[in-house]
Design goal:
This protein has three helices and five strands. It has about 90 residues and is of the alpha+beta class. Strands 1-2-5 form a three-stranded antiparallel beta sheet. Strands 3-4 form a two-stranded antiparallel sheet. Helix 1 (about 5-15) crosses helix 2 (about 20-40).
Length: about 90
Amino acid sequence: MNKSELIAAIAKKSKYTRAQVAKIINSFIIEVTQNLQKGVKIKLPGFVTISKVRRIARDGRDPRSGAIITIPAKNAAKFKVSTVLNNTLR
């Protein structure tokens, strides 16, 4: 399911138009992104917890040449699926 399919599905099951749902989804994405940039952990009970983590620099291999390269440190998003959601997928 992509973003437009999600918007259409939510609009179909609610009293909102596709444009209204799109605005809500876009606002949600912006809020999550901005809060993760600040280091705020996002908790959606029964669904997912999203947090910002720091990946340390490490050595890796260039797949073409096989040479050892340094992969720089970076920030990344960490997603932890809730037990409730995980149990529904079994």
